[in-house]
Specification:
Length: about 80
Amino acid sequence: MNSQTSGSPTLAVVEQLAEKEGVDALELRPPLYDVVDTEALDQLVESMDEDGLVEFEYQDYQVTVSSSGEISVTEKAEI
């Protein structure tokens, strides 16, 4: 799933992960902040040049955040 957001990258990642899991964003377990430093993620994405990417794993998903704000959440089995 790909999307673009004008809000916080962390919020967009949480929303996409929750959608994949079929739960409310507040019910995502474990919370994203237990897996990555969400403040650092937001700061890193905001400071990247135009070709920047951040990738990390969350449970069974590969998450990619681009400097343009595009978010991709892919199940590892699909990779």
